[in-house]
Amino acid sequence: MDKETLIKKWLNDELTPAEKEAFEQGDDFDLHQTIIDGAKQFKASNFSEPRSFNDFKSAYETKNITNNRLDWFKPMLRIASILVVGFGLYFTLFYDNFTQIETFASQKTTIELPDQTKVTLNAGSEIEFSEKDWNDNRRLNLEGEAYFKVAKGKIFEVITSQGIVTVVGTEFNVKQRNNYFEVQCFEGIVKVTSGEFTKKLLAGDTYRLFNNIVTEDKTTFLQPDWTTNKSTFKALPFKAVMDEMERQYDIKIIVENVNTERLFTGGFMHDNIENALLSITQPMDLTFKINASNDVVIYGNKK
Question: 20 and 104 in one domain?
C-alpha cells in the first residue's frame, strides 16, 4: 500500500490493526500526529476545512514550500541587517562630526568655532564644518552671508560656490547669493580666489563678482552694516534688494509694473517694515501695500 493511501485511511480511522501498527512504527508518524494534535487546539474560524485528503495534501505541501522559501530568505535578512548596522556605524563615525548652523528668515546668530573664531550669520544663511579635525583643517562651507572674526592660527578658509576666501587671522565679511559674490576686509589681509582670479584684500577693500563682472571698492565701516540691523546696496538690481528684505522680515513681495533689474543704491533698517519699504520704494518712485497676510505688493507707475 502506498504512503498516501495509508495516510488517507489513517485520517479516516479505516486502518486495520496490522496496518495501524505498521503505520505507527513509521518514521513520519510523530510528525503526522503532531499536526493532528495541534489542529485540535484551534477553534473554527473563517477558513474552511479540507474537504478531502487531496486538499490536506495540497495544504501540507504548500506549507513545506513556504518554509523552504523562508529558510532561504532568513540568511538574506541577516545579511541585510548587518549592512544596515554597518552603514549606521559608518555615518556615525564619519558624518556625525560635521556641524551645520542655519538661520531662517528674520534671524541672525553668532557662534564660536572650536578655535574661538566668531561667526555671525545673516538671515537665510548656513555654514558647515567638521569639528573632528578643526585645529588641523580650519575650513568651512558657506551659503548666504557671514561675518568672521578669525582667531590667529593656521590658514582659515571659507568655501562658497563662487569663490574661496583664505586668511590667517582677520575680520571680514563674505556674501554669496545666487550670482552675487562679495568679500569685504575689515582687518588684516584676505586672499580671494574665484576661478582663475586671485586678489589680496587689505582692511577697507571690497571685492565683488556680479554676473561674472569683477569690481573693486572701498569701505570705511568697521564691520558689516547688517550686523547693526541695516542692509545697504550699491548699484544692485532692485530684485536683490527685495530678496534681502524678504529674508530680513520673513515676508513675500509681489511686484506690479516694476522693473526689477533697475539698479538701486541705498538701504533699509531691520526694525520697522513700513519704514524699510519707504526706504526702498520712494527713491525708485514706487508705492507699496501691506496685505493682511503680511504679503507686500510694490507698484510701479503705469504708462
Answer: no
